[in-house]
Amino acid sequence: MNITDFTAYIKANPKIRFGKPIVKGTRPTVLEVLEILANGRSAAGRYFYPCQRVSNSL
Q1: Full pLDDT tens readout for the chain, 58 residues
Q2: CA quadruple 24, 11, 15, 35: dihedral sign
Q3: Which of 15, 24, 41, 48 is most buried, by the most CB atoms less than 10 A from its CB?
């Protein structure tokens, strides 16, 4: 998979989350999702992220 493939799933908008990259259609930043997963936690846990929307976006 090329890195350019990720542009279909990630967007940055200065009006949303101060321009940090987010998963399209959701509010969590890409960094937040990666940190949660890297620490062995589930994004569904106490963070109440719309996991189905994140999964659907990927």
Answers
A1: 566 677 788 899 999 889 999 988 888 888 988 888 888 877 666 555 556 666 666 6
A2: positive
A3: 24
